[in-house]
Amino acid sequence: MSRSSPAPITRTPRPLVVLAIAGLVLLVGPLIAIVVRAPWSRMLEIVSRESALEALGISLGTAAAATGLSLVLGLPLALMLAGAPDGRSSVSVRIVRSFVTVPVVLPPVVGGVALVALLGEGGIVSQPLADWFGVAPPTSAVAVVLAQTFVAMPFLVFAIEGAIRGADRRFDLVAATLGSTPTRRLVRVTLPLIAPGIAAGAALCFARALGEYGATVTFATSIPGITQTLPMAIYGELALGDRDAAIALSLVLIAVSVVVLLAFRDRWVPQVAR
Fold it and tell me: Which of 85, 133, 146, 213 pairs with 61 at a CA distance of 20 to 30 A?
């Protein structure tokens, strides 16, 4: 009696396919709706408004600055997490990694409140700085950059840490055997090996910072021409009842984010790209 060959293990049962399609519709449907409802005849007029261009410029500038700050602070943090002895089981590393993860799962508004408590008026850090050195709490684009860095840096840290753990350590061992110093090995061996991971992490960090709203509006407030980013401008247009303007500006933000993510698609979803 012949036995039929078993079904491929990757084959998805039909009920799950239905649920998968429903999930895809939930993810893609709103984006399609934005494209369908977009005021294409007024698109150029809306996006070329002075307020829209200012908001876009602030968003791009602060997101780039937040990405740069995240690289300066996040790269050493990722190296520390990935280079710790027995990093996956070390209690201290687990604690540090948990703290790095908190901004990812924390509601953005709560993150903004936390930043206010730390650096806002009367904050536990800003108040002594104001009393002793006359340094005022950040209220300009600096506040926007700090808020964006708070929510976006973890994405960069985890991307770089993953790249370090996935890199071939034999090159580093050979360089160490030849007498190269740790700093020289880092610059000449490790960083070139993980450069694609750094680029991918920076792209994710930039995209997250570009779309940040909750922590930014709570900590930096929304001041047109100073701290009002594109997400704030979109919400402002909705509050004023101009849905067409909100949709048009949303399309601009979606387009910029998609371009950034697609440029590094092979790095942040390598298993899919293959």
Answer: 133
